[in-house]
Write a structure and sequence with these properties.
Elements: E1 2-7, E2 10-15, H1 22-29, E3 48-51, E4 54-57, E5 70-72, H2 86-93, H3 103-116, H4 122-128, H5 139-150
């Protein structure tokens, strides 16, 4: 089947099998490998992307379900000049990563959280990231990065 969607503000159109998951579509058809395949069961959140601004785990969304929607991946957060957005920068500044495998999903989840709640408490951040797992247990710095990003008042669209 042929599907069309906007990915990081670029029109994409590809033929896919009806059973193709969004994560595989993004990685294989579109060529954006920043979205990681983790558990394939929505348990880890490594595949988190934004669909119409809301975080979704792309391992349980069919590409066909995302047809016509606007998808943002980790590659779509920075600006056209290669500058990181505020969440990416906060993860770097606060050392919010260890092995880095969960980082794209964590960044996307924090981005969605800050759009919903621009001034979260630590408890809000911990609750908001509940569905994203860090195998290295780097949660303290991830939470610190989210709080630091919330203090930067630019809003990336």
């Amino acid at each position: 089947m042929r599907i069309e969607m906007m990915v990081n503000a670029n029109a994409e159109s590809h033929d896919v099998e009806a059973r193709t998951l969004l994560v595989h579509y993004l990685r294989d058809a579109v060529g954006l490998t920043g979205t990681n395949v983790g558990c394939d069961t929505t348990s880890c959140g490594a595949c988190t992307v934004l669909m119409n601004g809301e975080s979704v785990k792309s391992c349980t969304v069919l590409a066909a379900q995302a047809a016509g929607e606007a998808i943002t991946t980790i590659e779509g957060l920075g600006d056209e000049f290669g500058q990181m957005d505020r969440v990416q920068q906060a993860f770097q500044d606060c050392h919010g990563l260890q092995c880095g495998y969960c980082t794209p999903g964590m960044v996307m989840a924090v981005t969605s959280l800050l759009r919903e709640n621009p001034e979260p408490t630590e408890a809000d951040v911990r609750l908001g990231l509940e569905g994203n797992l860090c195998r290295c247990t780097g949660y303290h710095n991830i939470v610190e990065a989210a709080l630091a990003a919330s203090r930067v008042h630019e809003v990336h669209q």
